[in-house]
Specification:
The chain has helices spanning about 1-10, 25-35, 45-50, 65-75, 90-100, 115-125, 150-170, 270-285, 295-310, 320-329; strands spanning about 20, 40, 55, 75-80, 105-110, 130-140, 175-180, 190-195, 200-210, 215-220, 225-230, 235-240, 250, 255, 260-265, 315. The protein is of the alpha/beta class. It has two domains: about 1-110 and about 275-295, Rossmann fold (3-Layer(aba) Sandwich), CATH 3.40.50; about 110-270 and about 300-310, Dihydrodipicolinate Reductase, domain 2, CATH 3.30.360.10.
Length: about 325
């Protein structure tokens, strides 16, 4: 992701790259040669010595808290890649520091800026689904060798629990999960997670590093019909609930029911560009980020609850986190 941020920021007319840090010297030399920015092998030294208006943290998850807290202490606005931290406690430390010093921190849940997701959210807000029954998400693909410090739940499922909560317009109060470890040396590489929301809506998350090709899909079923979304192609469709009094016959004898399907127009674009533009606006005016630290903490908390539920074989209640975050506000 660091290379992607480097590409987008390097091409953006309203941003100037002044410093880059990478502990791997060949990668650092390539990045500085490409951008003309000053290079630092030590990220904390860069935060202390470079004149920064803002910082993008695209480092291994276990380093997020240390780097974010250093930037906040230096009054530098931060965009930290998801997950915001490796643990809920570290996320809460970032949240407390951000609020105490008034330094904005945006979390890189880039799918929130996917044009198809934004259009889906707009249509649901317009009332296309008066009641949401279920939200299911599939995020699958081959194992990325670069991910060693966390499993698929913290690395990938954090995307999906954030999207499901945003679509439902509420946080889950209970989760359950099953996990498996097939090829990863240290962590789980498959997750099936269930989420129960206070409204009665149900969420399902299927995430793995075992599928030989990328799949990024979202399905929202409600009273009036069903949305189906492909994150990669940014294709969005809506299927109306069918007239059950007029079945369609398959092969002339097997009845089925089909609703009308409409392709929803979506103006495609790169989500990372939109995310970084939103962050630059936050840097300019100090406004609250669209995806803030509290959103990031919730994503990590739900992912952690998945792992605890899978380990114990019991549902995990999240009501205590709601109380904790309310007290932090």
């Amino acid at each position: 992701m660091g290379l992607n941020h480097l590409r987008v920021l390097g091409e953006h007319p309203d941003a100037r790259l002044v410093a880059i840090s990478d502990p791997a010297r060949p990668a650092l030399e390539a990045a500085t040669a490409r951008s003309g920015a000053q290079g630092f092998e030590n990220a904390l030294a860069m935060i202390r010595e470079a004149e920064l208006d803002a910082l993008v943290i695209a480092a291994p998850t276990t380093f997020h808290a240390e780097l974010a807290l250093a930037a906040i202490d230096a009054d530098v606005a931060v965009l930290v890649e998801k997950p915001v931290a490796a643990t809920v406690d570290d996320g809460l430390r970032i949240l407390a520091a951000s609020r105490a010093r008034g330094v904005p921190v945006q979390v890189g849940h880039v799918e929130r800026f996917n044009p198809a997701v934004l259009e889906l959210g707009r249509l649901i807000a317009e009332g296309w689904l008066s009641t949401i029954y279920s939200i299911s998400s599939r995020r699958a693909g081959p194992f990325p060798a670069r991910i060693r410090d966390v499993g698929v739940t913290v690395d990938l499922a954090t995307h999906d629990v954030d999207i499901l909560s945003w679509i439902a317009r509420e946080r889950p109060h209970r989760v359950y999960a099953e996990t498996a470890q097939r090829i990863h040396a240290d962590h789980e590489d498959l997750l099936f997670g269930l989420l129960g929301f206070p409204s009665g809506a149900t969420g399902f998350v299927d995430v793995n590093w075992l599928t030989p090709t990328k799949r990024r899909q979202l399905v929202v079923v409600g009273e009036e019909g069903m949305f189906e979304l492909d994150y990669l192609t940014q294709r969005l469709t809506f299927t109306k609930q069918p007239n059950v009094g007029q079945p369609t016959l398959i092969g002339g004898y097997a009845p089925t029911f089909e609703g009308d399907v409409a392709l929803v127009p979506v103006l495609s674009g790169e989500p990372l560009v939109a995310e970084l533009e939103a962050f630059m606006q936050v840097v300019r005016d100090g406004s609250r980020p669209i995806v803030d630290v509290e959103d990031g903490v919730w994503a990590v908390a739900i992912a952690t609850a998945f792992l605890e539920a899978a380990a114990t074989g019991r549902p995990h209640d999240l009501s205590d986190l709601q109380v904790t975050l309310a007290g932090a506000s």
